[in-house]
Amino acid sequence: MRRNPDTTTLPVVGSIEFDAVDLAIVHALDIDGRMPFARIAEVLGVSDATVVRRYRRMRASGAIRVVAIGDTRRTGQAAWVLRVRCVPDAVEAVAEGLGRRSDVAWVQLLSAGAEVMCVTRPRGPQARGDQLLRNIGRAAGVGELEAHCILRVVVGGPPGWRAQNIGLDADQVAALTRFAPVVDPDAPLPPWSDDDRALFAALSRDGRMSFADLARTCGTSESAVRRRLEVLRATGVLYFEVETDPEYLGYAMPAFLWMSVRPSALDAVAEAVAADARAVFAAVSTGRANFLVNVLCRDTADLYDFIAHTLGSVEGITNVETTPIVETFKREGPMPQPRRRR
């Protein structure tokens, strides 16, 4: 395998910058968040100590974090995307309050300045989340709540957010992918236990927690934790994702698009969006905007290209509302304390 050069850098975000080796490590962890550091080092052509040191530096600075995520498509839970219009003076308090909830993820401030979007994942199989939505709608500072129930995910979920060519070449990706867990989407779901909840809670804080630490946290043996995690991953109930600010990877223009699409055109639009690597999440939903897309673009020209050419090439889109993402309060894992500001 080629050795990744240690010279190219991306714009500084906060107090740290990523070079080519850092980017390759992030890309490797996007393939498998629990990939052994020794395997990553072998493929990159660097020492084990280099990978460990780089990862610890990035994680300690808050630049990256590996977290466990439950796949709602496998568990049958209802997922909702909420667009919350707030009283202007209350927008940060509303966002912080949403971020503290364990059943809410992806809390982001939109360009309008008084709008927050988030994703909810009500607990329990087939949960509709009515009470959760009512609680959010009644929260202080919330003026209007627009709720979209996800009907079909087009882009998103395992194996991560499709890190497009950020650090590894095709041979390196292939070398690492062959060691990643294979998911059987038709496998019967394992019964969910209190031990699983404890395991998931620990891994949602640190997806690379050692088996020894997981065993102590869950009050069981290392072998039991290892076997259970293998089952949860193999059945697709749980997967791992790398959280990082897109600016570290060169994407300075993240945006969320609220689209209205004719029913007859949904499949064609889904195919076009899924073929564009800038789309990191896309879903068909209920609501006035029935097709939702999250894109990571490098700049305004890149965003224009996605709208004009990827979306413009498909018939049946009747409206597109584009809202740049100004700030992310929380991603999938627990909200960082103290929260890092962009």
TrEMBL record:
Any one of the GO BP annotations: response to amino acid
Domain HTH asnC-type: 18-78, 196-252
Domain of life, source organism: Bacteria
Any single Gene Ontology cellular-component annotation: cytosol
Keywords: DNA-binding, Transcription, Transcription regulation
PROSITE patterns registered for this protein in UniProt: HTH_ASNC_2
GO MF annotation list: sequence-specific DNA binding
InterPro entries found in the cross-reference section: ArsR-like_HTH (IPR011991), AsnC-type_HTH_dom (IPR000485), Dimeric_a/b-barrel (IPR011008), Tscrpt_reg_AsnC-like (IPR019888), Tscrpt_reg_AsnC/Lrp_C (IPR019887), WH-like_DNA-bd_sf (IPR036388), WH_DNA-bd_sf (IPR036390)
Protein's UniProt name: HTH asnC-type domain-containing protein
Organism: Embleya scabrispora
